[in-house]
Amino acid sequence: MTAFGGVEMGALAARTRALAVLRVRSRALAVALLPAAAAVILLVGGSTGHLVGGGWDVLRWVVSVPALLVLLAAAGVALVVARAEPAMTPTVTVPEESAPELYRMVRDLADRLDVPAPSAIALTPDCDSWLEDRTHPLHGPPPVDRDDDGLPGLGDPARRRSAVAAPVLVIGSPFLWWMRVGELRAVLAPVVAGTGPSAHPDIAAARRFIRGLDAAVAVASAGRRDPLSRAACAGLGWVSRLLLRSCRRHATEMERGVAAAAAERAQAVDYGLRIVAQEQVGLAYAGWDRLLTRVALPAWRMGRWPSRLDVGVVAALTELSRRDRLAEGFASRLGERPACDLLEEPGVVDEAVSLLAARLFHGGPAETRPDWSPVGWEDYPEEVVDRSWRTDAARLHRVLDTLGVRRTGAGTAPGTDGPTLARVLDHLTTPDPDPAPTLAPPTATDADADPAPGTHSASGTAPTGAQAPHADHAAPHPVYADHDAPAEDSDDLADPVARRGAPDASGDVQAPHGDHAAPHPSYGDHAPYGDHAPHGDHAAPPPPRADHHGTPADDEDDDDLAGTTARGAALAAGLSAQLAREEARERPVGAGVPASPPGPGAGTGPDAALWDDRALPLLPLQPPRTGREILTAHITAMVCCAAMDTVGAAPGLDWLDGPALLLDGARTADLAPSVLSLVETGDPGPLRAWMTELGIRPEKPVRLV
Fold first, then answer.
1. What distance in Å separates the CA atoms of residue 644 and residue 167, rounded to the nearest whole number?
2. Strand ranges for 95-207 from DSSP E
3. Which residue, 487, 489, 492, 497, is CA-closest to 323?
4. What are the pLDDT digits (tens) for 635-690?
5. For residue 393, how many C-alpha atoms fall within 13 Å in the half-sphere facing its CB?
6. With the C-alpha atoms ordered 472, 474, 480, 483, is the resulting torsion angle positive or negative?
7. How far apart are the first and last CA of the chain?
8. Largest CA distance in the chain
9. What is the pTM of this model?
10. Containing H/E element for 672?
11. Which of 10, 424, 441, 500 makes a 20 to 30 Å CA pair with 340?
12. What is the tens place of the pLDDT at every residue in 405-425?
């Protein structure tokens, strides 16, 4: 893009598209007023003696009544569009007294870019940054004096646009902990540059109109029970969606023009460093996704939430730097000043963001309570890994009891009836000529049997974690057999850097709106115009095919277990049913729980008033686990318990792969393929050979929770 008369071409294109959006609004108003105008003409004609006669009297009634109905309907739609509160992104607000240096850096950046400074700064538990307008339409900005002879754009002085409230700058919290101060400044430059278009009267009005329509669709989607309200909501939704479809193309092009203009303006600030910083964006995203899916998710399922997620992503990326030959140069960056030093109390902020992440990605409560407590990284192996394995092992044996499987396994001493791994192996490998055993109806004792105190629907995670992350996230890092895995196995974590957009000829990274790697200088609406989720679901997940903690749909579960043995399929069904009962007893975890006030002097906390938390989690990390995955995780947990109780193995934490089994301080390898062989084919040979090599005795009883 090039400037024309001191105005960026992107700004001119954005204003043109904004005017097109406003023309749609004007046309809708004209259509609503057209029947009323016809009725006025007929009424005035009759009062002046020009349109007289019985036919004209009938026509006046025929036109006036529908005109009045249309006016009332249009007024109702306009009222809802004006008063409905747009959805807001869940964030943790950072007051200026809690981060004076961060505010100073952002204001200095805005001064250099000659744009208004953001009105506030907030953090989000994601690897993205954007601007978000949090000015309710009822409190719209005052009129702005304009010179109609000119074309105000991004090049105009900020003082001519100061009447429009500046948006809030939302920063991804992993950026603050992983990036250095200079890198964060370079990444935020094109985002902060977007405050210029946000203050432009035409663009701001077009955005308010779009957000109002979006909120009106959410109101209509909520629905009502009585027929009259349902009819009104249906009409409101139809009109709002029609207008959104009419505005969609113009609104999309408007945002593209805003992004192009902001990127062009930001080239003058830290241009060379921005290319290097974009590599850190991709790396931070990969490490953050890995930390959430492999490390945080098992803890959340146990009713514990890691209180230092941002510190954890630094540890994960540092470990990656040690393993991956592509990341060798990143370790030297750790000697520079991290961006989190710009916060007065980074630990307090990290804790608030970690709690918000647990709410968004898992649906946990908004405050600490007995069944939902924080856990530090030093306590993670004992409080999460060990307890999750033993809870899964206990659930496995409860289901075996329900199936009528005998307690004593082959090779056990007489009179031994404790929970042993041999019992599981014998059940899954003994030939069974009869049809697969059916799951007995749950008795009151079985259905009401609660896990041990302090547990929270533990489902366990295999130490070598073969779970796939959410489809919208970067590809996971390959599972390492040990800490000395070859560097060639680590290359895929560098891929997100390439996937997120490569520098073009001008050096700017081009990425579509909503991409997590390229900060978009807009107000933060990520969904395409016209495709809107209910109010509060800023990026609503796809409809789940089953309960998100374990029970897959019947048809898909049958396909998933088709390749397993009959006894394995029955055991998987029993485990899924048991997990579903436990989840039903504990639901809802955090819906409707008010956010707790921040601690003394913290000045931070989730902005619970800005978003609707009636449907949590808003952004689940993973789809429901299949029966095969549930069975594999439980058998793996039983093997790990046997290893801990017979050969002195210990639970551990791998920053990239999550729960790990440690023997003599080193991570054990090759467990996952052996367990899969037992689950899929009923062949215990590989698993028995693995246990024999390590000295694990499957006939020994294990300790359960």
1. 54
2. 120-124, 129-132, 168-172
3. 487
4. 999 999 999 999 999 999 999 889 999 998 899 888 999 999 999 888 999 999 99
5. 28
6. negative
7. 64
8. 113
9. 0.73
10. helix 671-681
11. 500
12. 887 655 555 545 678 999 999
